[in-house]
User: What shape does this take?
Amino acid sequence: MISMKNAIKIIVSGLDNAGKTSILTALDKKYNFQQEILELKPTIRVQYHQTEFLGNLCFFWDMGGQEQYRKLYQKRQDVYFDGTDLLVYVIDIQDKERFDTSLAYLDLILKFFMNNEMDIPIIVSFHKYDPELRTIDEIHDSINDLRELITEKYLTFKILFQQTSIYDIISIVQLISYGLSIFDEKFFELSVLVEEYLVNKFNSTSLILFDQNGIIISEFYREFINPDIYIELLETIKEHLFLLKRMQEEDFSLDYNFFTLENKLLSYLHKIKIRNDSYYVSIVIEEKYKENLLEKFPDLVEDISKILEVILP
Ligand SMILES: Nc1nc2c(ncn2[C@@H]2O[C@H](COP(=O)(O)OP(=O)(O)OP(=O)(O)O)[C@@H](O)[C@H]2O)c(=O)[nH]1
Ligand SMILES: [Mg+2]
Assistant: This one.
């Protein structure tokens, strides 16, 4: 496992029109990005995005995917791919005609990593998996076929897969969060802790830890969630992404927020400070467990702080 360091280079690659710039724009904005995305132009060569995650600077290299640029990267592989810590490879799941082209491009990049003994984690995003497509068998078949092909061909790499759509902001947040959490085994400890609180202490429906940019550090969901509660849950998490931005503004004096949902659920967002940074705990819980939650919440804050203190550089 790679150890955390101060600058992380993340290559975001895939064919033209796959949705790379859209993903990064959605991640930056979280809200009101729809219009901007509709107006996106193809990326010329490489565009850089930057974000901070647990005290590390993450540089995203948004690699324009048009053929002329792909050829350029191939010619100057060292310039573009050297020093990469994480590859996010985006495949447009609606563009079946170009699956083979996309796989060939992925192969080119992975060969470079293999030849240079770069054993880096890879995340493949099956993108444009829009909500209305989720019941279509053909789409699922495509995803399964691609996943199988890729897994069997590249046994030496650690590859994670994630379905994403810009119409589902949480899927985008998760994509990047998975990528970043690969860098430290402390994240495993954190997820054990989060699960323990969700299941045994709070009895909550969901428990998520966000950083101040709304990137998920850890998350856990109740194993069985009723379908109508599930939709509400996702809406609430979206609200929380919005709310945590507002909590950073000066006129927002409280460091927590409660609201009641239908189905007797409560939504809770709490800001915690560790060193100079803010983190946000998002919880959805049945109303009857509220008192218990409030009583035990300080323990969670203490336990999370202990782990994050170690992870932070
Ligand atoms: N239906 C759907 N369309 C999307 C989604 N994400 C992006 N798009 C659209 O796909 C088109 C291409 O998106 P870009 O983000 O510019 O693609 P890109 O991968 O950056 O392309 P290059 O810069 O040429 O490499 C745009 O018209 C977006 O609106 C998605 O999740 N679902
Ligand atoms: Mg682009």
